[in-house]
Amino acid sequence: MTGLPFKNRLLVGLTLFSMFFGAGNLIFPPFLGAQAGEATWWAMAGFVVTAVGFPILGVMAVAESGGLKTLAGRVHPVFAFVFTLLIYVSIGPALAIPRTAGTSFEMVLRPVLDANGLLDAKIAGFGMLDAAQALYAVLFFALAAWVAMTPEKLTQRLGKFLSPALITLIGALFIGVLLSPLGLYGEAQSAYATGAFARGFIEGYQTMDTIAALNFGIIIAMNIRAMGVTSEKAVISETVKAGAIAALVFCVIYGALAHIGAEAGGAFAGMENGAQTLTHAAGAVFGPAGPVLMGLIFFIACLNTCVGLLSCCSDYFRTIIPGPGYRGWVVIFALISAVVANAGLTTILKFSIPVLVAIYPAAIVLIVLSLLTLGFDAVRHRPAVYPVTVAVTGVVSVASALASCGLLPEALASAQRSLPLADVGLEWIIPAAAAFALAMLTKKRAPVMRTTEEAA
Question: Which of 37, 106, 130, 312 has its CA 20 to 30 A from that of 3?
């Protein structure tokens, strides 16, 4: 088969959407709407560029290059191994996978315990809250591991069932707000009042979905092949089309969530995050059923993302340590994540987030370079482009990560803060662009041909 029928292509697109759309994607747009108020749609335009555009381009870049390791290998083989390993560990058992259980627990079971006065209760000498969280994590990861055991069937499980269910539930909340408006959009707050597009751009960047995109591309390609597509060119083409479908769904869902947040921002005061914004909106529209609706939305979103991350991490680790096999790695990561989710996620975040801050700019630069050099063999004709641009980006971003931990000497920290765009966490952009421009001017020298007489 050289291409997918539209029905299957839609399933792949919905699968990609569901793998990306976790708790963070749920809470960013409504809080943006609550803060941006009348400037919501300008802010959303900037948000979509980085929160939708970069990740989808990342999936396409990985599909085109043949995998993250191949793409990163354009810099150097050692960099490819270290960078790829850091990405899979940081978005896998060290951060993102455990967080899916913790976040969904906060929205699914904690409100139930709170409503029944059980948060401080004891059971067999253990706190009810801790016991409930431990049991929830075990059951949550057991379910996620079961779904992830057959990665080639994710389009059937995520795209066919869970993703439509998630979209339907979010749609129900949106329609409820349309039929029973919460109020008018409020006034734009803080940075949204003077630069809504720029602030939205920064908020979208901070979702860090681009890192996940570098991993999901291979799983999506695997599912396309499982549907009978054999030509590599066709696999890349179908991945691009699935990415376009996912991008469209993202824009619609993000727009709906931003509208809900904008109305909630005008109606309620004191909201500190997107979860509170959605909870207020759901409670106002659906009454006692509101928390149930929110619990279902967060549970499905977190489960989808967890399954996607378990799949891509296990698929990678089976290639470097094949002993346990794919399914063995799924079980290993599920067990590790269950432990981390219950025994110090806050501590893990302190170490994992600086790592993400350090590697995220390099991930974006790799994607941009891949697209800028599409159809042009940069590795052959401009060999300095990838290593120089990524190296400069890496130096700046690692310095930023160390500065955020207070580990950078004051003189260097002061220099880092003085870089353009440092106040919004984008201080790496100008150095990266300059490095790229200089590297493009450096051509590979042609080999010197010596005559027979010269050789003699």
Answer: 312
